[in-house]
Amino acid sequence: MLAEKNAAKRQEIVDLLTQAYWMEMETVMSYLANASNLDGIRAEEIAEALDEDVNEELGHARAFARRIKELYGTPPGSMDFSASQTSLQPPADPADVVTVINGVIDAESGAIAHYNRIIEACDGVDWATQDMVIDILRDEEGHLRTFERYLREFD
């Protein structure tokens, strides 16, 4: 993967990893904001779950940054950030737990779809990145299932 003949494919993977890095960083910001903003007895468990997920999502971002560097890329700085997770913005009503849960489901679903694209792009060429992303994908699928269960409790 590190050979010059793989430069174009390597750049494609670095670009996908960079997008994944930003998705994780934005998720960290949004989860932190939502966990801090939620109010009410019914919101307590959701806020705690988001707080716990912040560390895991930050770990994913760190893994993506390390892999970008290993593939001769440069992990991006804050000036390259552009927010896109509109569904994860804290709702005006801090007791609106369902909006937060749906935002998490939307973000996790988007991450899962993107990580599957990375896995496909790496297939047969970059086993190390593929293996790393498969592990992260497993985490995201677990987050998705957890919040789908929360949502069922509010239906």
Question: If you had to describe this structure to a student in words, what would you say it looks like?
Answer:
The chain is mostly helical and 155 residues long. The protein is built from four helices and no strands. Helix 1 (7-37) packs antiparallel against helix 3 and helix 3 runs antiparallel to helix 4 (127-154). The radius of gyration is 17 Å and the shape is elongated. The mean pLDDT is 96.
Q: How large is the radius of gyration?
A: 17 Å
Structural class: mainly alpha
User: How many β-strand stretches?
Assistant: 0
Distance between the termini: 48 Å
Overall mean pLDDT: 96
Considering DSSP H and I runs of 4 or more, what fraction of the residues is helical? over 70%
Shape: elongated
Write down the secondary-structure element order: HHHH
- Number of H- or I-type helical stretches: 4
Sketch the major β-sheet.
none
In terms of per-residue confidence, which ranges show pLDDT below 50 for 5 or more consecutive residues?
none
List strands and helices in order, with pairings.
Layout lengths: L6 H31 L3 H30 L26 H26 L4 H28 L1
Using brief descriptors, characterize the structure shown.
elongated, 155 residues, 4 helices, 74% helix, single chain
Structure, briefly:
The chain is mainly alpha-helical. The chain contains 4 helices and no strands. Helices cover 74% and strands 0% of the residues.
